[in-house]
Amino acid sequence: MLYELSKKKAINDKIFDFEVESFNSTENVKAGQFFYIDCGGKSFLRRPISICDVLDGKLRFIFEIRGIGTYELSKKKCGEKIDILGPFGKPFNTEFGKNKISILIGGGIGIIPLFKLSKELEKVVAILGFKTKESIFLKEEFVSTCDKVIITTDDGSFGKHGNAFEALEDTLEREENKKNIGALYTCGPKKLIYGVAKFGITNNIKTQVSMEEHMGCGIGACMACVCDTTEGKMRVCKEGPVFDSKKILNNFEE
Amino acid sequence: MTQKKINMKVDIGGVVWKNPVSTASGVFGFGEEYSSFFDINALGAICLKSLTLKKQVGNDSPRIAETSSGILNSIGLQNPGIDFFIKHELPKLKKICKTNIIASIAGSSIEEYAIIAEMLGSNVNMIELNISCPNVKEECITFGINSKSVENITKKIKKVSKVPLIVKLSPNVENICDISKAAESGGADALSLVNTFLGMKIDIKNQKPYFKNTFAGLSGPAIKPIALRMVWQARLATKLPIIGLGGITCTNDALEFLMAGANAVAIGTYGFFDPLIWPKIKDGIEKYLIENNINDIKNISLTNSY
Asked: B125: pLDDT confidence band, cut at 50, 70 and 90?
């Protein structure tokens, strides 16, 4: 399916914000799912890019240049058509957060799928971790969709000094009634998501994590993008990208 | 003007395919995923992911890497095992699939291959012997690398198989002609070639091989000219029907394989990019025949006259 790139913004020299026109219904697109994008140029495989937001029938993607594919994608110009398949994969389960507080814990570009999620949930606390003040993005938008936003930076140049996981521990300590917390949702570096997953289990809070692996077909046929789970190696593109934390227990010692 | 009737049918080892287009093993799962993109019955055959006797967990990640015009994969034959396949996957597939089903099988001993073939019986239309998977530590690949062992395993599985047998050849051999002849004298009903080329990638950041198994299988457009040359050579070495594959991305690529003497083609890796590539190529071949006034697919081989 060809979609027209209608808006493009460089957040910094590595991170780009794209809006594409969608001809399909966008109602069924859920937070945590990804689209499988032909980045063009020298790239051969498509790249999975998670959905950041859906607005008036348009899809919004924010991505970071990681390699040749995302580099080629960043070179696309407004008005250009992009070949996009999807949405694919299992979304976050928003039922867990119903009538309760949901805590979103994101690190770096891991905050991107959490933005759409923040719009699908009711009471939301977002803990967003960045390296430095300069690398912060989407902050104002999270402020508009969440009840509370906590920003952390590794170097302490903005918000809390430290990482998102430490801020999560801190927040939970202050929360008097832990029963008010419906679920934790996390996406970001492996160290962060395993930390949050373990924390959720220890504190008996339902926790969902978004996993990442290099993909082949993107639809569950080729078995390339598996991650270790308690039920064996499961496909990130099909059984994931979102998994219950209890399923990825195997990976804790990594 | 009435359109002239074109014959797209081919006979692959005694099984009639309505057209010469199939899926390659490994990329197509057990058929379910792609059936939401197109009618899989439009194809001459579908070839499924390799089955082993016991469930295989497969290799640790990473399992895939992009290369210039291709991919390296190190999946390691992850599959639920033959028993689960027969009980759960095959009945599901049979509900939606009316075209030929090729079961690809792999094992670590000839006995394992034989048990799988016997268990499949005539529940599938053809069996493809995968004796060339580079991604498992066991003996799978070693069956495919010398003529004697190819002939031996082919003979033994042919004896127990209730359906025509395709032998899938490895390109990682000294002489593809000898291997083709060995499969023929072992009693193969057809050949498919080529499987992936052995390759590797090094992770320079961490200064170690990228894949846990060190080596991985290279596929995609990068291998097409070599695969094509091997099909041509195999064609001249044997009379067996050949399913040609290796880096096909479009109708023109498929036509090259057919002209090199392949009786049918399979497309694998490119399906990752374009999930509709199989019906597109089938339609494209038909269009080529009509436009070039060729009334039978069988007449486009160039190797007939060599």
From this structure: very high
Angle at A220 between CA A217 and CA A223, to 5 degrees: 80
- B27 and A38 within 8 Å at the Cβ level: the answer is no
Domains held by chain A: number: 2
Q: What token pair was written down for B212? A: 């846990």
User: Measured between beta carbons, which residues in chain B are less than 8 angstroms from residue A43?
Assistant: 66
Quick one: DSSP state of residue B5?
P
Predicted confidence band at A254 (pLDDT cuts at 50, 70, 90)? very low
Any chain B CB within 8 A of the CB of A254?
no
Domains of chain B: 10-58+74-200+219-305 (3.20.20.70)
CB atoms within 10 A of CB B204: 8
Interface check A190 vs B, CB under 8 A: no
Residue A183, strand partner residues:
A102, A206
Segment A211-226, tens digit of pLDDT = 999 999 999 999 999 9
CATH code for the domain of A57:
2.40.30.10
Spell out which residues of chain B touch residue A224, defining contact as CB-CB under 8 Å: 63-64, 73, 75
pLDDT of residue A97: 79
What's the rounded mean pLDDT across residues A231-244? Answer: 96
Q: Of A147, A151, A149, which is closest to residue A164 (Cα–Cα)?
A: A151
Is residue B231 predicted with pLDDT exceeding 60?
A: yes
ipTM of model: 0.91
CATH code of residue A200: 3.40.50.80
Domain that holds residue A18: 2-88
Task: Tell me if B28 and A221 make a contact (CB, 8 A cut-off).
Answer: yes
**Would you say residue A236 lies in a domain?**
no
Q: Where are the beta strands (DSSP E) in chain A?
A: 2-10, 15-21, 34-37, 47-50, 53-55, 58-64, 81-88, 101-107, 123-130, 148-153, 160-161, 181-187, 206-210, 226-229, 232-235, 242-244
